[in-house]
Amino acid sequence: MGDSTQFVIAGNWKMNGMLEESLSFVDNLTENPAPNAVEMAIMPPYTLLHSLSKPLAEKGVVLGAQSMYFEKSGAFTGSISPLMLRDAGCHYVILGHSERRDIMHEGNALLRKKLDAAWENGLEPMFCIGEHLEEREAGTTNEVLKNQLSVLAGTDVSLPLTVAYEPVWAIGTGKTASPEQVSETHAFVHQELARLGRKCRVLYGGSVNAGNAESLMACEGVDGALVGGASLKADSFMEIVAAAARVAA
After folding, report:
1. Which of 53, 135, 215, 235 sits in a 20 to 30 Å window from 242, CA-based?
2. Domains of the chain in sequence order
3. Global pTM value
4. 50 a catalytic residue
């Protein structure tokens, strides 16, 4: 565990989830085995935010969104504002996910605007960073992560922030970084954040599941997990929470 006193296990549902099955997911969540040591969070699609806000809160789960636009309102067809996310009950918003960077071509300049807008409107960014396989193999992982983290330069370090390191080659592929790779990279990320004046949780993401969660959470510098596919089922999500609770004990 890194500098945090509380793990966070966050489920990113991506473009998955209909209302009935999502309410069933919440019904099937069991009690957090270590509420003081592990925070649970779910990031469903926009269409489910309002419907899940209250039932998730009743289960002690924090609500988050998967992205947002940086303007508060206006003629931005198809976009969702930070004020809308707050209105729906969100605490977190994922920014910089590799799928947004790669598919939607979101770069540092846009992400800085989104970060600033999130903070201005009372949201905590869950800021994602990560390298592609060719960058890992070329030995440029740290350079890539340093560039991605550079958007934090000059921001108010008192504002809340969670960082998620997700090697792009491990997202949804079934491949997971080795404990050595995870510990080494998280050490660099914490070091780079400290250089920028920040001390915050750094989560690991990339094919996290019930089988590997405990070994990943035990890695030095890991403060939780951003979970994809394994967060779509209540039982597997709770198994990951239980793994974090065992490491925290």
Report:
1. 53
2. 7-248 (3.20.20.70)
3. 0.96
4. no
